[in-house]
Design the sequence.
């Protein structure tokens, strides 16, 4: 099983490392997105470059690579959670409902490892000398395959704060902080130490990658969405 986990982590990392924002801007605008605005390769900075269409494409592709990483991880296991939902014949609980998830389920752990590795890949892509984005969209895509209800809670938090403040960074940090708690509350069968570690580590990494934004927020110098600079 250790070999499987290693393969899962490697594939997910390489998928997460694909710098779609950098690639799209380089192809269609003949520019290096790292020289624009905040220098970030994510959708927000692509939008600040004036390429709204490319920003949307970046957002969707960054989310998709996270989802695909988890999908491929699940394909290495005997069953897929989105096909069997919460039921698996032959494993019933006391109420007679056939449950799929268990705290030690290797499929869930493998998928959680893939989600975390994809986020690491986006934040530290091997193709760009380990200087990447902040992992928000990739994290949404990855965990949408594992904990969609918790992701929706995080998205609502993001949307509310974004509407009230127009600070993408503040909304992203708050949503990332809320996500582990929402997952713990909504998915009891994901409360194993290993899964909680991966989930918390994923959110923590995204928050840490926003450290410059957090400093600017505290100093009152952070740009609101729509401003020319980050």
Sequence:
């Amino acid at each position: 099983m250790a070999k499987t986990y290693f393969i899962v982590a490697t594939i997910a990392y390489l998928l997460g490392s694909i710098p779609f924002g950098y690639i799209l801007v380089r192809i269609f605008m003949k520019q290096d997105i790292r020289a624009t605005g905040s220098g970030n390769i994510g959708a927000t900075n692509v939008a600040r470059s004036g390429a709204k269409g490319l920003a949307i494409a970046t957002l969707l592709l960054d989310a998709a690579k996270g989802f695909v990483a988890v999908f491929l991880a699940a394909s290495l296991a005997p069953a897929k959670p989105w096909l069997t939902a919460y039921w698996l014949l032959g494993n019933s609980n006391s109420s007679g409902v056939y449950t799929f998830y268990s705290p030690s389920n290797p499929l869930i752990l493998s998928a959680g490892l893939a989600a975390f590795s994809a986020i690491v890949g986006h934040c530290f892509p091997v193709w760009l000398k380990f200087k990447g984005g902040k992992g928000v969209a990739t994290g949404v895509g990855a965990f949408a395959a594992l904990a969609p209800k918790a992701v929706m809670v995080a998205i609502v938090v993001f949307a509310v704060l974004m509407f009230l403040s127009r600070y993408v960074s503040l909304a992203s940090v708050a949503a990332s902080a809320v996500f582990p708690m929402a997952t713990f509350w909504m998915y009891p069968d994901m409360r194993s130490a290993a899964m909680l570690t991966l989930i918390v580590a994923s959110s923590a990494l995204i928050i840490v990658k926003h450290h410059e934004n957090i400093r600017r927020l505290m100093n009152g110098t952070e740009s609101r969405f729509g401003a020319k600079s980050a």
Summary: The mean pLDDT is 87. The chain is about 65% helix and 0% strand. Residues 8 and 110 are 7 Å apart (CA to CA). The two ends are 43 Å apart (CA to CA).
